[in-house]
Amino acid sequence: MSNNRLLRIGIIGTVIAALCCFTPLLVVLLGALGLSALVGYLDVVLLPALGIFILITLYALWKRRSA
Fold first, then answer.
1. 41 vs 59, which has greater pLDDT?
2. How many domains in the chain?
3. What is the pTM of this model?
4. Nearest to 10 by CA among 45, 54, 49
5. How far is residue 57 from each of residues 22, 39, 40, 44, 50, measured CA to CA in Å?
6. 20-26 contacts: CB < 8 A, separation 24 or more?
7. What residues make up the domain containing 48?
8. What is the separation, in whole angstroms, between the first and last Cα of the chain?
9. Is the pLDDT of residue 55 over 80?
10. pLDDT exceeds 80 at position 23
11. Is the CB of residue 13 less than 8 Å from the CB of residue 53?
């Protein structure tokens, strides 16, 4: 996988996960769809996803710097 693609995936994933973690965007969306029972599980999924995407972004930046 190319470094630019890896960096793009990391940044987009980080932004999406951060928006869903720190704003009520996903809670409102799930409530509107009638899936508000899933809101309790959001932290279990979104916080590790945010960490993984941050690590992907940092790895791509490290790879870009060392190349």
1. 59
2. 1
3. 0.77
4. 54
5. 19, 27, 27, 21, 11
6. 20/46, 21/46, 21/47, 21/50
7. 3-66
8. 14
9. yes
10. no
11. yes
